[in-house]
Amino acid sequence: MAAAAAATAAPGALGTLQAGRARLVAACCARLGPGWRLSGSWTVSRVGPATWARGWTPAAGGAAWRRGYSSEVKKEDELRVRYLEEENRGIVVLGINRAYAKNSLSTNLIKMLSKAVDALKSDKKVRTIIVRSEVPGIFCAGADLKERVKMSSSEVGPFVSKIRAVINEIANLPVPTIAAIDGLALGGGLELALACDIRVAASSAKMGLVETKLAIIPGGGGTQRLPRAIGMSLAKELIFSARVLDGQEAKAVGLISHVLEQNQEGDAAYRKALDLAREFLPQGPVAMRVAKLAINQGMEVDLVTGLAIEEACYAQTIPTKDRLEGLLAFKEKRTPRYKGE
After folding, report:
1. Active site residue 252
2. Residue (of 286, 328, 212, 218) closest to 32 by Cα position
3. What is the biggest distance separating any 2 CA atoms in the chain, rounded to whole angstroms?
4. What CA–CA distance (Å, rounded) separates 277 from 178?
5. pLDDT tens sequence across 267-324
6. At CA 171, angle to CA 105 and CA 131, rounded to 5?
7. Is 38 helix (H, G, I), strand (E, B) or coil?
8. Which of 171, 177, 198, 243 is deepest in the core (most CB within 10 A)?
9. Which residue out of 188, 247, 284, 298 is catalytically annotated?
10. Is-above-0.85 flag for pTM?
11. Residues 140/180, Cβ–Cβ less than 8 Å
């Protein structure tokens, strides 16, 4: 409070800048306030490690796996939300399942994604979220153009705004998010992946912002998040050309963090995402949340303001029970038992 008062009282442009920084830091802290409560309005499945991908069934002979898909699914099954169990407890998987439409973003799917994200963002039991496809060879082909062509000009804008809003909600989730790209990710599909903290892909995956081919531009945050991920000049080149990259090319330009050779099951990226999520699980939940917030907010401001944001976020960890548990566990040479408190 004293710092905020001093900033407000400071004269001239410097005072205005300091006041702005103080307000930004205060807003940053406000986002860490109460409200991490579990929403009971979202029905999900909970699965153990042997069945972490529903829709997988043992193949003849036992050890191998195969997938079974129908050409169409019920609308309520177009997004499957799974809370993993046992050693994977704390990992939630959002599985897109619109095989007949190449996982394209329809009005219904956007509505389901929004509902799922709204439940997850206040659930303190969630430690990491993986966004994946349950359709072989496809991550997400972008907006549902068959649905789009039926819209009037006045309807297109609001529809794209809903897509942008949901993708922003995913970007603002308070826990680490990983996009597992095991297939095609074009347009809005890549924008969905760009909203995640980490992206992993199979070498056979294809990804690109191809909207200029349709005489439009990326509308789900692509013009903003792609330059932040790979740099302005290269992002412009890819958007202007509507170029599609494979997994190796995407890794070379920094679009993804890891590239894997695809396996027989077609889920190499998902398995890597699951390995990464397991690495995150033992860490302090509050620390993970405020670390993400500090990084995200700090990258949008100057260094001095960013350091102030870091200081404010660090302060949020000092009074937690988890911090004391971490020190005690270190002293007793044991694994800490964090509760997110």
Report:
1. no
2. 286
3. 77
4. 8
5. 999 999 999 999 999 999 999 999 999 999 999 999 999 999 999 999 999 999 999 9
6. 55
7. coil
8. 177
9. 188
10. no
11. no
